Amino acid sequence: MQSGLTVFNNLNTEEFDRYKVIINRNSWTVSEGVHSWPLKKDTLTFIKEGTEVHFDVIFNAIHGHPGEDGYMQALFEMNNIPHSSCGFFESALTFNKSKTNELLKSQGIVVPKARFYTDTKSIDPKEVASFFGLPLFIKPNRSGSSFGVTRVNDEKSILPAIQAALKEDNQVIIEEAILGTELGCGVACINGKTEAIATTEIVSKKEFFDYEAKYLGASEEITPARIDAEVEKLIFKQSEKIYNYLGLWGVIRADYIVRDNIPYLIEVNSIPGLSPASIIPQQLAHRNWALPAFFGGLLHESIERNQNK
Question: What domains can be seen in the chain, in order of their start residue?
Answer without folding.
Answer: 2-90 (3.40.50.20), 114-176 (3.30.1490.20), 179-307 (3.30.470.20)
